[in-house]
Amino acid sequence: LTKRGAHAWSRVARGGMPPGRAEGGINLLHVHAVQDETLVQAYLPAVRAFLSEARRRGWRMDSVEARDRALADMLAIFCYEWGAGIQRGRNTFSGFVHVFPEHTGRLPEAARAMQAWERLGTSGEGEPICEEAWAAIIVAFMRAGDEECGLITALTFDCLFRGQDWSRLQVSDVSMMFGVDDQIIVALRLGPRVRGESTKTGSDQGVIIERGWIASWLVAFRVRRVARDAALIFSVPTAEFRARFHEQQRRLGIDVGPPHRLRHGGAACMLARGDAPTTVKLRGRWRSDKSLRRYGKTHVLVSQRASLPAAVLDLGRRFLAAPDPELERARKNSLDPR
Question: In degrees rounded to 5, what are phi and psi of residue 266?
Fold first, then answer.
Protein backbone atom coordinates (compact mmCIF):
# COMPACT_ATOMS: atom_id res chain seq x y z
CA LEU A 1 0.00 0.00 0.00
CA THR A 2 2.89 2.32 0.78
CA LYS A 3 4.38 1.56 -2.61
CA ARG A 4 1.15 2.11 -4.55
CA GLY A 5 -0.02 5.08 -2.48
CA ALA A 6 -3.29 6.23 -0.97
CA HIS A 7 -4.99 6.48 -4.36
CA ALA A 8 -4.65 2.72 -4.83
CA TRP A 9 -6.30 2.07 -1.47
CA SER A 10 -9.12 4.51 -2.25
CA ARG A 11 -10.16 2.25 -5.13
CA VAL A 12 -11.27 -0.43 -2.65
CA ALA A 13 -12.02 1.61 0.48
CA ARG A 14 -14.91 3.79 -0.66
CA GLY A 15 -18.07 3.43 1.35
CA GLY A 16 -20.87 1.42 -0.21
CA MET A 17 -18.66 -0.49 -2.60
CA PRO A 18 -20.17 -3.92 -3.43
CA PRO A 19 -18.35 -6.76 -1.62
CA GLY A 20 -17.41 -8.50 -4.85
CA ARG A 21 -15.81 -5.41 -6.27
CA ALA A 22 -14.03 -4.68 -3.00
CA GLU A 23 -12.62 -8.21 -2.95
CA GLY A 24 -11.46 -7.84 -6.52
CA GLY A 25 -9.74 -4.57 -5.66
CA ILE A 26 -7.95 -6.14 -2.72
CA ASN A 27 -6.84 -8.99 -4.95
CA LEU A 28 -5.50 -6.42 -7.41
CA LEU A 29 -3.49 -4.78 -4.65
CA HIS A 30 -2.08 -8.19 -3.75
CA VAL A 31 -1.05 -8.77 -7.37
CA HIS A 32 0.68 -5.39 -7.32
CA ALA A 33 2.50 -6.36 -4.14
CA VAL A 34 3.73 -9.58 -5.76
CA GLN A 35 4.88 -7.61 -8.80
CA ASP A 36 6.74 -5.16 -6.57
CA GLU A 37 8.43 -8.03 -4.74
CA THR A 38 9.51 -9.58 -8.07
CA LEU A 39 10.90 -6.23 -9.18
CA VAL A 40 12.95 -5.74 -6.02
CA GLN A 41 14.12 -9.30 -5.45
CA ALA A 42 14.63 -10.55 -9.00
CA TYR A 43 14.56 -7.90 -11.72
CA LEU A 44 16.57 -5.03 -10.22
CA PRO A 45 19.53 -7.17 -9.07
CA ALA A 46 19.66 -8.90 -12.47
CA VAL A 47 19.57 -5.63 -14.43
CA ARG A 48 22.12 -4.05 -12.11
CA ALA A 49 24.46 -7.02 -12.61
CA PHE A 50 24.02 -6.87 -16.40
CA LEU A 51 24.81 -3.14 -16.58
CA SER A 52 27.84 -3.60 -14.33
CA GLU A 53 29.16 -6.45 -16.50
CA ALA A 54 28.54 -4.44 -19.68
CA ARG A 55 30.55 -1.55 -18.22
CA ARG A 56 33.36 -3.89 -17.16
CA ARG A 57 33.55 -5.40 -20.67
CA GLY A 58 33.41 -1.99 -22.36
CA TRP A 59 30.31 -2.74 -24.41
CA ARG A 60 28.61 0.10 -26.27
CA MET A 61 25.27 1.04 -24.75
CA ASP A 62 24.59 4.33 -26.54
CA SER A 63 21.67 3.14 -28.71
CA VAL A 64 18.78 0.71 -28.63
CA GLU A 65 20.56 -1.50 -31.18
CA ALA A 66 23.76 -1.54 -29.11
CA ARG A 67 21.86 -2.40 -25.95
CA ASP A 68 20.05 -5.17 -27.83
CA ARG A 69 23.39 -6.69 -28.94
CA ALA A 70 24.85 -6.34 -25.46
CA LEU A 71 21.88 -8.05 -23.85
CA ALA A 72 22.02 -10.87 -26.41
CA ASP A 73 25.75 -11.33 -25.74
CA MET A 74 25.11 -11.37 -22.00
CA LEU A 75 22.49 -14.11 -22.37
CA ALA A 76 24.90 -16.18 -24.48
CA ILE A 77 27.61 -15.79 -21.82
CA PHE A 78 25.17 -16.83 -19.09
CA CYS A 79 24.19 -19.93 -21.03
CA TYR A 80 27.40 -21.18 -22.65
CA GLU A 81 30.29 -19.76 -20.59
CA TRP A 82 28.94 -19.46 -17.06
CA GLY A 83 26.43 -22.31 -17.15
CA ALA A 84 23.91 -20.14 -15.30
CA GLY A 85 20.35 -21.26 -14.69
CA ILE A 86 17.82 -20.13 -17.25
CA GLN A 87 15.92 -18.14 -14.62
CA ARG A 88 18.83 -15.72 -14.46
CA GLY A 89 18.42 -15.06 -18.17
CA ARG A 90 14.68 -14.58 -17.79
CA ASN A 91 15.14 -12.15 -14.91
CA THR A 92 17.73 -10.17 -16.86
CA PHE A 93 15.72 -9.96 -20.09
CA SER A 94 12.31 -9.37 -18.49
CA GLY A 95 13.80 -7.07 -15.88
CA PHE A 96 15.51 -4.90 -18.49
CA VAL A 97 12.27 -4.43 -20.39
CA HIS A 98 10.40 -3.79 -17.13
CA VAL A 99 12.86 -1.16 -15.93
CA PHE A 100 13.27 0.41 -19.38
CA PRO A 101 9.81 -0.06 -20.99
CA GLU A 102 10.79 2.01 -24.04
CA HIS A 103 12.69 -1.10 -25.20
CA THR A 104 9.54 -3.23 -25.39
CA GLY A 105 9.43 -4.99 -28.77
CA ARG A 106 12.73 -3.39 -29.81
CA LEU A 107 15.21 -6.08 -28.70
CA PRO A 108 15.06 -8.68 -31.51
CA GLU A 109 18.56 -10.16 -31.01
CA ALA A 110 18.11 -10.52 -27.26
CA ALA A 111 14.66 -12.05 -27.77
CA ARG A 112 16.08 -14.64 -30.19
CA ALA A 113 18.89 -15.43 -27.75
CA MET A 114 16.36 -15.96 -24.99
CA GLN A 115 14.20 -18.18 -27.20
CA ALA A 116 17.24 -20.27 -28.18
CA TRP A 117 18.14 -20.70 -24.51
CA GLU A 118 14.58 -21.71 -23.71
CA ARG A 119 14.68 -24.39 -26.43
CA LEU A 120 18.08 -25.61 -25.22
CA GLY A 121 16.85 -25.75 -21.65
CA THR A 122 13.71 -27.65 -22.64
CA SER A 123 15.66 -30.24 -24.63
CA GLY A 124 18.00 -30.88 -21.71
CA GLU A 125 15.50 -31.12 -18.86
CA GLY A 126 13.28 -33.97 -19.90
CA GLU A 127 14.81 -37.30 -18.88
CA PRO A 128 12.56 -38.79 -16.16
CA ILE A 129 13.76 -40.22 -12.84
CA CYS A 130 12.72 -43.80 -12.18
CA GLU A 131 10.72 -44.72 -9.08
CA GLU A 132 13.56 -46.64 -7.39
CA ALA A 133 16.01 -43.72 -7.69
CA TRP A 134 13.32 -41.35 -6.35
CA ALA A 135 12.71 -43.62 -3.36
CA ALA A 136 16.44 -43.98 -2.62
CA ILE A 137 16.88 -40.19 -2.61
CA ILE A 138 13.99 -39.84 -0.12
CA VAL A 139 15.68 -42.31 2.24
CA ALA A 140 19.01 -40.51 1.80
CA PHE A 141 17.40 -37.22 2.81
CA MET A 142 15.75 -38.80 5.84
CA ARG A 143 18.94 -40.49 7.00
CA ALA A 144 20.70 -37.14 6.67
CA GLY A 145 18.11 -35.65 9.03
CA ASP A 146 16.53 -33.53 6.29
CA GLU A 147 12.86 -34.47 6.48
CA GLU A 148 11.69 -31.30 4.75
CA CYS A 149 13.63 -31.97 1.55
CA GLY A 150 12.64 -35.64 1.72
CA LEU A 151 8.97 -34.68 1.76
CA ILE A 152 9.45 -32.17 -1.08
CA THR A 153 11.08 -34.94 -3.12
CA ALA A 154 8.19 -37.29 -2.38
CA LEU A 155 5.51 -34.74 -3.30
CA THR A 156 7.24 -33.55 -6.47
CA PHE A 157 7.18 -37.05 -7.95
CA ASP A 158 3.70 -37.99 -6.70
CA CYS A 159 1.91 -34.71 -7.55
CA LEU A 160 4.02 -33.82 -10.62
CA PHE A 161 5.06 -30.57 -8.95
CA ARG A 162 6.99 -27.72 -10.42
CA GLY A 163 9.27 -25.86 -8.03
CA GLN A 164 6.81 -23.00 -7.67
CA ASP A 165 4.07 -25.43 -6.64
CA TRP A 166 5.70 -26.69 -3.45
CA SER A 167 7.55 -23.45 -2.63
CA ARG A 168 4.29 -21.43 -2.50
CA LEU A 169 2.20 -24.10 -0.79
CA GLN A 170 0.60 -22.75 2.40
CA VAL A 171 -0.87 -24.61 5.35
CA SER A 172 -4.30 -23.32 4.30
CA ASP A 173 -3.88 -24.96 0.87
CA VAL A 174 -3.97 -28.47 2.37
CA SER A 175 -7.41 -30.11 2.77
CA MET A 176 -7.92 -33.53 4.34
CA MET A 177 -10.73 -36.03 4.68
CA PHE A 178 -11.14 -39.77 5.31
CA GLY A 179 -12.58 -42.07 2.68
CA VAL A 180 -13.65 -45.68 2.82
CA ASP A 181 -11.78 -47.87 5.30
CA ASP A 182 -10.50 -44.67 6.96
CA GLN A 183 -8.17 -44.03 4.03
CA ILE A 184 -6.78 -40.52 4.21
CA ILE A 185 -7.39 -38.25 1.20
CA VAL A 186 -5.40 -35.02 0.87
CA ALA A 187 -6.03 -32.33 -1.75
CA LEU A 188 -3.64 -29.45 -2.45
CA ARG A 189 -4.69 -26.08 -3.84
CA LEU A 190 -2.22 -24.55 -6.31
CA GLY A 191 -2.04 -20.97 -7.56
CA PRO A 192 -5.10 -19.59 -5.76
CA ARG A 193 -6.39 -16.51 -7.53
CA VAL A 194 -7.52 -14.99 -4.24
CA ARG A 195 -3.85 -14.53 -3.31
CA GLY A 196 -2.96 -13.17 -6.73
CA GLU A 197 -1.03 -16.34 -7.56
CA SER A 198 -0.99 -18.65 -10.53
CA THR A 199 0.84 -21.73 -11.69
CA LYS A 200 2.64 -21.90 -15.02
CA THR A 201 -0.63 -22.90 -16.69
CA GLY A 202 -3.15 -20.83 -14.75
CA SER A 203 -4.79 -20.06 -11.40
CA ASP A 204 -7.01 -22.08 -9.07
CA GLN A 205 -5.59 -25.48 -9.88
CA GLY A 206 -5.03 -28.43 -7.59
CA VAL A 207 -4.04 -32.05 -7.18
CA ILE A 208 -4.90 -34.99 -4.90
CA ILE A 209 -1.95 -36.87 -3.39
CA GLU A 210 -2.00 -40.37 -4.84
CA ARG A 211 0.14 -42.35 -2.40
CA GLY A 212 -1.35 -42.75 1.07
CA TRP A 213 1.97 -42.75 2.89
CA ILE A 214 2.86 -39.36 1.38
CA ALA A 215 -0.55 -37.97 2.32
CA SER A 216 -0.12 -39.10 5.94
CA TRP A 217 3.42 -37.74 6.01
CA LEU A 218 2.33 -34.31 4.76
CA VAL A 219 -0.53 -34.11 7.26
CA ALA A 220 1.84 -34.86 10.17
CA PHE A 221 4.39 -32.37 8.83
CA ARG A 222 1.68 -29.72 8.43
CA VAL A 223 0.62 -30.14 12.07
CA ARG A 224 4.14 -29.24 13.17
CA ARG A 225 4.23 -26.23 10.85
CA VAL A 226 0.91 -24.97 12.23
CA ALA A 227 2.26 -25.35 15.77
CA ARG A 228 5.06 -22.97 14.78
CA ASP A 229 2.57 -20.44 13.33
CA ALA A 230 4.14 -20.91 9.89
CA ALA A 231 2.20 -19.79 6.83
CA LEU A 232 4.17 -21.82 4.30
CA ILE A 233 4.43 -25.60 4.41
CA PHE A 234 8.10 -25.50 3.39
CA SER A 235 10.76 -23.01 4.42
CA VAL A 236 13.70 -24.12 2.26
CA PRO A 237 14.32 -21.94 -0.85
CA THR A 238 14.13 -23.67 -4.23
CA ALA A 239 17.81 -23.04 -5.00
CA GLU A 240 18.84 -24.55 -1.66
CA PHE A 241 16.65 -27.60 -2.26
CA ARG A 242 18.23 -28.07 -5.66
CA ALA A 243 21.71 -28.02 -4.09
CA ARG A 244 20.70 -30.51 -1.39
CA PHE A 245 19.08 -32.75 -4.00
CA HIS A 246 22.36 -32.98 -5.90
CA GLU A 247 24.27 -33.57 -2.66
CA GLN A 248 22.14 -36.63 -1.82
CA GLN A 249 22.74 -37.99 -5.30
CA ARG A 250 26.47 -37.59 -4.72
CA ARG A 251 26.18 -39.50 -1.44
CA LEU A 252 24.33 -42.31 -3.21
CA GLY A 253 26.80 -42.38 -6.08
CA ILE A 254 24.21 -41.60 -8.77
CA ASP A 255 23.46 -38.76 -11.15
CA VAL A 256 19.83 -38.55 -12.28
CA GLY A 257 19.67 -34.80 -12.87
CA PRO A 258 17.87 -31.81 -11.33
CA PRO A 259 14.73 -32.01 -9.16
CA HIS A 260 12.44 -31.00 -12.04
CA ARG A 261 13.00 -34.44 -13.53
CA LEU A 262 11.03 -35.88 -10.62
CA ARG A 263 7.95 -34.34 -12.24
CA HIS A 264 8.77 -36.08 -15.50
CA GLY A 265 9.49 -39.34 -13.67
CA GLY A 266 6.09 -39.28 -12.01
CA ALA A 267 4.40 -38.76 -15.39
CA ALA A 268 6.43 -41.50 -17.07
CA CYS A 269 5.60 -43.96 -14.27
CA MET A 270 1.89 -43.22 -14.64
CA LEU A 271 2.08 -43.90 -18.37
CA ALA A 272 4.14 -47.06 -17.82
CA ARG A 273 1.49 -48.54 -15.53
CA GLY A 274 -1.21 -47.89 -18.13
CA ASP A 275 -2.81 -44.59 -17.12
CA ALA A 276 -4.46 -42.74 -20.01
CA PRO A 277 -2.41 -39.83 -21.43
CA THR A 278 -5.34 -37.48 -20.80
CA THR A 279 -5.29 -38.45 -17.11
CA VAL A 280 -1.55 -37.81 -16.84
CA LYS A 281 -1.88 -34.52 -18.72
CA LEU A 282 -4.60 -33.34 -16.36
CA ARG A 283 -2.70 -34.37 -13.25
CA GLY A 284 0.50 -32.71 -14.48
CA ARG A 285 -1.39 -29.55 -15.44
CA TRP A 286 0.11 -29.50 -18.92
CA ARG A 287 -1.59 -27.51 -21.65
CA SER A 288 -0.40 -29.52 -24.64
CA ASP A 289 0.02 -33.14 -25.62
CA LYS A 290 3.45 -32.19 -26.97
CA SER A 291 4.77 -31.46 -23.46
CA LEU A 292 3.50 -34.79 -22.18
CA ARG A 293 5.12 -36.68 -25.07
CA ARG A 294 8.39 -34.87 -24.47
CA TYR A 295 8.56 -35.78 -20.79
CA GLY A 296 6.75 -39.12 -20.54
CA LYS A 297 9.58 -41.28 -21.90
CA THR A 298 8.83 -44.66 -20.38
CA HIS A 299 11.80 -46.40 -22.05
CA VAL A 300 14.18 -44.17 -20.06
CA LEU A 301 12.86 -45.68 -16.82
CA VAL A 302 14.11 -49.11 -17.90
CA SER A 303 17.54 -47.89 -19.00
CA GLN A 304 17.97 -45.85 -15.83
CA ARG A 305 17.11 -48.79 -13.58
CA ALA A 306 19.71 -50.84 -15.43
CA SER A 307 22.36 -48.17 -14.78
CA LEU A 308 21.71 -47.72 -11.05
CA PRO A 309 24.14 -49.31 -8.57
CA ALA A 310 22.67 -52.55 -7.22
CA ALA A 311 22.65 -51.21 -3.64
CA VAL A 312 20.69 -48.09 -4.66
CA LEU A 313 18.21 -50.10 -6.72
CA ASP A 314 17.68 -52.48 -3.78
CA LEU A 315 17.29 -49.59 -1.33
CA GLY A 316 14.65 -48.01 -3.52
CA ARG A 317 12.73 -51.25 -3.97
CA ARG A 318 12.75 -52.03 -0.24
CA PHE A 319 11.46 -48.55 0.53
CA LEU A 320 8.65 -48.78 -2.01
CA ALA A 321 7.62 -52.19 -0.65
CA ALA A 322 7.20 -50.82 2.89
CA PRO A 323 7.64 -47.04 3.04
CA ASP A 324 6.23 -46.43 6.53
CA PRO A 325 8.70 -48.57 8.50
CA GLU A 326 11.56 -47.34 6.34
CA LEU A 327 10.56 -43.73 7.06
CA GLU A 328 10.44 -44.49 10.77
CA ARG A 329 13.88 -46.05 10.64
CA ALA A 330 15.20 -43.06 8.73
CA ARG A 331 13.73 -40.65 11.29
CA LYS A 332 15.68 -42.55 13.94
CA ASN A 333 18.79 -42.23 11.75
CA SER A 334 19.20 -46.01 11.60
CA LEU A 335 21.74 -46.77 8.89
CA ASP A 336 21.91 -50.50 9.53
CA PRO A 337 20.53 -52.68 6.73
CA ARG A 338 17.24 -54.35 7.52
Answer: -60, -40
